[in-house]
Design brief:
Helix content: 40-55%
Largest sheet: 3 strands, antiparallel
Radius of gyration: 14 Å
Structural class: alpha+beta
Order of helices and strands: EHHEEH
Distance between the termini: 15 Å
Number of helices: 3
Number of strands: 3
Strand content: 15-25%
Shape: elongated
Strand order of the largest sheet: 1-3-2
């Protein structure tokens, strides 16, 4: 099993530049895209972590190439 963590670097700086409402829109779109990509490669989105995600590959369904899928 591979666990993938991904988050937005300097999200607070981005919020200061674009405002809270626009940041919410950006993050919502990013999380939708991330969810689709994780699913495309056979992963499961485990949780949202504020400005990021945690996804697992190879569980609950075993995948022999789980690490490669997470990198893709």
């Amino acid at each position: 099993m591979t666990v993938l963590f991904a988050d937005v670097v300097h999200s607070m700086d981005i919020a200061a530049a674009v405002g809270a409402e626009r940041l919410r829109e950006i993050m919502s779109a990013l999380l939708d895209l991330s969810t689709n990509v994780v699913s495309r490669y056979g992963g499961t989105l485990s949780q949202f972590t504020g400005d990021g995600i945690m996804a697992v590959f190879g569980a609950p369904v075993a995948l022999e190439d789980h690490a490669v899928r997470a990198c893709l």
